[in-house]
Write a structure and sequence with these properties.
Blueprint: H1 3-17, H2 21-30, H3 37-44, H4 52-68
Length: 84
């Protein structure tokens, strides 16, 4: 995985989970991250390069936030004959 691929997958995961840069930064900071909110936001948008260790720490923080989100509703399946 390239640095760009990791950055893009992080942005995409945050976007789909509706995790803001501020929420991510708070959790990232709580797990000993050193970036400022401005740097983290710039990284998410592909405008600031990070070393691998920091990229992994951002990914860890984001994944923990996503794991804590409530499950989203899903479409139900019908079992048996159709009743239409």
């Amino acid at each position: 995985m390239t640095a760009h691929t990791q950055q893009h997958s992080t942005w995409l995961a945050a976007h789909k989970a509706e995790v803001t840069a501020e929420d991510l930064w708070l959790h990232y900071y709580s797990v000993c991250g050193n970036l400022t909110l401005f740097e983290l936001d710039a990284y998410l948008h592909g405008m600031y390069a990070l070393p691998q260790g920091e990229r992994n720490l951002v990914a860890l923080a984001l994944n923990e936030l996503i794991d804590d989100l409530p499950p989203r509703p899903k479409a139900e399946f019908v079992h048996g004959p159709a009743l239409d």
